Amino acid sequence: MTDNSEGRNAPKLDRRSLLGKGATTVGAVAAAASLLPRTAMAQPRPVKGGAKPGFSVAAMGEAMVGRRFGNEGDPNFLALVKLLRDADIGYCHLETNLGDDDELEWAARGSAGASGYLITDGDTAKDFAWAGIDAMSLGMNHSFDWGTAGIASTIRHCQAAGIAHAGTGKNLEVARAPGYWQNAKGRMAMVSVASGNSPYEWAGRPKGAIPGRPGVNPLRVLTTYEVPRDVAGQMKDAAQKLGIMNAAAAAKPDFSMTPGAVSGSNGFSGSTYREGDKFAIHSSSHPADLKGNLASVTEARRIAEYVIVAHHNSTSEGTRSQDPSDFVVDFARASIDAGADVYFGHGWHTFLGVEIYKGKPIVYGMGSMFVQSNFMQRVPADQYESYGFDMDMLPTYNMASDNLHPGGGPEWGWSALYQLNYDTDALDGNSKLKEVLFYPVECGWDYSFNPPRKYRTVGVGQAEYVAGDPRLATGANGQAILQKLKAVNARRGTPMEIRGNVGVITVA
């Protein structure tokens, strides 16, 4: 347990396509002018939970941050900082590791596919605290990029900056435990969960003299590919002729086409085929992981006034779209039923819409806060091999040699700062969500053009990359992003109004 002091009852609907059912900018940019860039890298964090009425949460998405940002002085960046500082809770998801050279060992992933390497300076945690971030979720598919040393250094730097955290730890009990913090408005808690990690990254339990395995708090997922029975018969026949399936396996309705694999192996994680009536893809959570994580949510509900569930999912049912996977919808709703006040989802670096479920917000995909993998200076040799570089020339390569991380295009570069406003500051279980505000955010792209154009870049020539830091989007760009937010919310069955440069969901 980390402490930093400073039953589904939903109606039956198509879970992915339809999931449920005032403001202006208030001079945000102008007000941010008073937030001058820091003149020193160690500045007291803002005080939260003061005497102002009501209760608010300001949240941003995946912070794939590649460099320090505490001296940033752009008014549209400082406008976001002001919103984070003014809220009673400032939250984001950390999509990298924090660590310095003397804390790290080696990159933990090899070159089978894109290896992981996300890392930034440990003192970047101080910049997040300066910006108003109170809590960061650490459970993700990159938690183990630098092994157990990277997990430990990330936790250490969060603690030194006074930032609450959850989702990783020295064993499963620690990784699954809620992170707690407190301010004048009450006691808060956060549970952080990750889906899509490799088995060696899952935190494990101790047994006898064997210590528990350090790692990430998992919500393992089984993806089932349903195919019509005649197609299943053809697949099984081919597998038997190839010698990768015996008669006993072919007789089962669930089967695998991978040599040596067992359907649903790795503790109910992976994929399987199933005989059925149609072509379809289904996903479901590991029952024990689901039970254990919901128990953590229940624990948090009993001893905290406000509970966040943060879920990082790097799996998908087929190609990624604007619709969350079945198991994500199920887990999000179950988390609310277990006592969570809000569910923040991320992992696809794009917005997946908001559902208001039993009066509480489910943000299925938050999108990006920072998109700066190209600016991470410590790149292991495996990453160059993954992208086809001539390894005999390894000493000549550096971070500017090419794009060394997948993604990062225009769909990763727009999102929002989400502000949740409640009707009372008495967090006693009776406070009600009044509205969800969307302040449009861009990371260097202008979406008023089709296709979007890069307009804030770093570097020249082959090494010209989008700057990747968040700014409040204004003018035509802000309106274009608000229209994108509105369209995806409509997919969730949630109407969003546009008032000036802010999107508004009014909660009845």
UniProtKB/TrEMBL annotation:
It comes from Novosphingobium flavum. Residues 56-373 form the Capsule synthesis protein CapA domain. This is CapA family protein. The lineage of its organism: Bacteria, Pseudomonadati, Pseudomonadota, Alphaproteobacteria, Sphingomonadales. Belongs to the CapA family. SUPFAM superfamilies: Metallo-dependent phosphatases. InterPro entries: Capsule_synth_CapA, CW_Biosynth-Accessory, Metallo-depent_PP-like, TAT_signal.
